[in-house]
Automatic annotation (TrEMBL):
GO cellular component: nucleus
Designated name of the protein: Uncharacterized protein LOC103514209
SUPFAM superfamilies per UniProt: Homeodomain-like (SSF46689)
Keywords noted in UniProt: DNA-binding, Nucleus
Primary localization: nucleus
InterPro entries for the chain: CenT-Element_Derived, DDE_SF_endonuclease_dom, Homeodomain-like_sf, HTH_CenpB_DNA-bd_dom, HTH_Psq, RNaseH_sf
UniProt lineage: Eukaryota, Metazoa, Ecdysozoa, Arthropoda, Hexapoda
Start-end of Acidic residues biased regions: 462-479
Region: Disordered, residue numbers: 457-479
Transmembrane segments: none
Cellular localisation: Nucleus
Residues covered by the HTH CENPB-type domain: 55-130
Pfam families recorded: DDE_1 (PF03184), HTH_psq (PF05225), HTH_Tnp_Tc5 (PF03221)
Amino acid sequence: MSRKGCTRFNYSEQNMNLAVEAMKAGSSAKAAARQYGVPRTTLTDKFKGKSPRSRRMGPSPVLTDIEELEVVQWIMNMNSAGFPVTRNLIVETVSKLIIELGRPNTFKDNVPGRSWFNSFTRRHPSLNHVITRNTGDLTTEKLIQWRQQLSTYLEKHNLLHVIRQPTRVFNSREAAFCLCPSKSTQMVVRRNFKYTSNLNEEKDYLTIQLTGNADGMLAPPLLIVPYERMPLAMGRSIPGSWMIGKASSGWKTSEIFLDYISNGFLPWLQKKQIELPVILFVDGHASHSSMALGKFCKEHGIYLISLSPNYADIVQPMDVAVFKTLRTTWKKALTRWKSEHGRTFKRTDFAALIDSVIKDTVTPDILQSGFEKCGIVPWNVDNVDFTQCPDLIKNVSSATLSSQLVKFLEEFIYPETVSLFEEYEHSDDWQTGLAVEDYSLFELWRKLKSKVKRNEENISFSEEEEDEDGGEDNSSDYD
């Protein structure tokens, strides 16, 4: 008895199917139920089609088996393309899917909870090694592993010939631009112009998404404005070729990015007669990972690939070559604009100014150099600047500091004494050859020298590992 007054029958799904087949062959429900040990009422319902033959305990599922398999396939595809697939991303995706299907949503806040997620992963145990839970510290080794995973993906999807064609390899990246100069910027305002700074303007930013390829071509930008209903003056200020995304937060959403790809990027590819498929490198943001976006891109020959998370300064062409220069030029242009106009810079002024800055700054050579420095086009891991990885930076910084301390110390020691220190550096009998007053100084000098040597050995060891994993003989990377 599982509950008072309620008997729970224990029977297998196989026995129930045999009982149903027996009834189809002419047996009565009572006889079939007794023969196979199944409840008669349940057997009758299954025989008449009132309940499914497949036995499932508990409440009705929110998704059918086929729909769940589609979610599983989406997760596997995202993972193989380098996207981090987290629990939050999965439950938010399922929540949107329920709304799209017009199903009643009984979850708290309309989002599946931990109980549903745990049941989902138990039904699909293959996802346990795919779902991202904790990436841990970022290291050179993980970056090399990501390159190897990406090479496998390119080979699996027959994209190795595409990665060698600069016109078919793209990077898309967004950045926020402040609408006021920094406090440290000195402004020279024309005579007879009175400029009054608005304290709130320092917090005002607009986000723009740039997409370019390794051949130096720049697609029309996407401007994200913090409106649900955009003012008419704002709309008139934006170039007609640009795409506009509207979000009250001012940040990109999955719906905005899907609209940009389907109504902006793809038509531009077709207009420029760029051969499909193309590769579009993006970061691992959730706005790039929706099921709807993945389905659209797959149907239209756009392969979305996530560049290694948190390594933007190393692997994102837009970050490496474009945005640093663009932000510097933007600040100068904004300061110059305010000095010439003598008034507050408004949102309606943004598009015209950033458009001119982009045209002057983002040249084909700069775009091409970004892809080359990131080792994407040409596909060559040797071009990646691994010295910017956090683990190597730590070692290099420590070694540099220790080396500088040694040089600083030696500047205050007589050259003859330094020569004696070097002579006895590895000797156990150093006290016999040095003056007593130099004992403490020598011990400090030798400790610093020893630390420099250890750090240099650590850096050398890391570089040797890079050569083994990313050299010319590594079949995972292709030139």
